[in-house]
Specification:
It holds the Pfam family Acetyltransf_1. It comes from Streptomyces endophyticus. InterPro entries: Acyl_CoA_acyltransferase, GNAT_dom. The structure is a single chain. The protein has 262 residues and is α+β, with helices and mostly antiparallel strands. It is built from 7 helices and 12 strands. Helix content is 34%, strand content 30%. A hairpin with a 2-residue loop joins strand 8 and strand 9. The mean pLDDT is 93.
């Protein structure tokens, strides 16, 4: 895989030319900034910026004014190759708070193992309706102690936009959900994205995560997507690299929250 060429393709298709991820959302380009404007419960933030030292300050201030005027928390999703070199410092000076950095991993779907079975006693269930969304929410409560409303909103929005889609898969032990992970297929691009993998503590380290990856990659391959992309935590990165994913850089979210007037 030509790393530079794939990174350039990712920047163009997934950032510069991104599409709204749910009904009622929109993508806007203001100067050298592309932002996603969703509902209050959805994702709001900056997807791409082509800034330089002279333009960065005004561009950051404009986004703060815009989302602040909506009363929205929003995220500026930065990548290590974004300019200017001091973008992170400028965001922090404007009141943004960095979250944990992640690694941008990409793999060719044709090069990944697709037949990884779940461990004995575990069955995988594609999420296609409201009741199954509840199973994913339950996993997130147990795995992360948070995120119920966020993951539920994302999955319901995906199902509402395309009822035939499979936005997630959940692993069951009997009738008890023990792991789950989300995915997005991005029409008009070469990329599918894997998101939100989580396993309840007592079931970690047994190979469930690998089977969830294979399940979702099979779906991406069946729909003709050439690449699968993950923003990987330090926990999932070594697992994914062993499967064949390669690192193209790092990404760090910077989050801005409106001031609460008491």
């Amino acid at each position: 895989m030509d790393h530079d060429a794939v990174l350039a393709l990712f920047d163009r298709q997934m950032r510069c030319e991104a599409r709204p991820d749910e009904a009622g959302a929109r993508v806007e380009r203001v100067g050298d900034v592309v932002c996603h404007v969703g509902p209050a419960a959805g994702w709001n933030g900056v997807l791409w910026s082509g800034l330089h030292e002279r333009s960065a300050g005004a561009a950051i201030a404009e986004q703060v004014r815009f989302f602040g005027g909506l009363g929205r928390t929003f995220e500026w999703k930065t990548y290590a190759h974004d300019a200017p070199a001091d973008l992170a410092d400028r965001l922090k000076a404007a009141g943004f708070v960095p979250e944990d950095p992640e690694t941008l991993l990409v793999a060719e779907t044709a090069a990944l193992p697709l037949d990884t079975a779940p461990p004995e006693g575990i069955r995988l269930l594609p999420v296609t309706d409201e009741a199954q969304v509840g199973l994913v929410e339950r996993v997130h409560e147990l795995a992360f102690d948070s995120g119920r409303s966020a993951i539920g909103h994302q999955l319901r929005a995906q199902l509402a936009q395309d009822p035939a889609t499979v936005p997630a898969v959940v692993a069951l032990h009997g009738d008890e959900p023990v792991s789950a992970a989300r995915m997005e297929l991005h029409p008009g691009t070469a990329f599918a994205s894997l998101w939100g993998g989580g396993t309840v503590p007592e079931w970690r380290g047994r190979g469930i995560y690998r089977s969830l990856v294979a399940f979702r990659v099979r779906i991406a391959a069946e729909h003709g997507f050439a690449y699968v992309q993950v923003d990987a935590s330090s926990y999932s990165r070594p697992i994914l690299e062993r499967l064949g994913f390669v690192a193209l850089g790092t990404t760090t979210p910077y989050v801005w929250e409106p001031q609460v007037t008491r």
